[in-house]
Task: structure prediction
Amino acid sequence: MSNNMFSNAITNNTNIPVLAGAMNAAMLRARVTANNIANVNTPGYERVDVSFEEQLRNALDKTRLQGTRTDGGHVPIGRLNLEEVGPTAYKPYDPTQPSGVNNVDIDTEMAKLAETQIMFKYMNAYAQGVFNKLNAAIQARPIQQ
Result:
């Protein structure tokens, strides 16, 4: 089996691409949240958030129609392919100013940062388990639990 065939087998038959996307989303969310925290006292600063989970949920929903694009200029219809799902930073509409200076609430941002760290740590441990199983399979040895 060539390296390309092996790589495609791993990509197409495991949840590694979804896990990689989720880890990328967590990293972006951590950077965005840290930036929000750094600007908590900046007058007029607008907080930034990250969207990913809803896109992923829609891409995984097999009940939704999935269109096929035959040209790069065509508008995508239906659910996205998993390869097309990625995190997006955006400024949510939020006219409140909980800090009195801007729309950043330090308590909310700190909680979001802690949640992101926990999720990333879990995803890292899960990815390590997936790769340990693949390594065991390649070496034809029992999987360590």
User: Anything to note?
Assistant: Residues 16-52+87-138 form one domain. The chain has a mean pLDDT of 85. The radius of gyration is 20 Å. The CA atoms of residues 12 and 49 lie 30 Å apart.
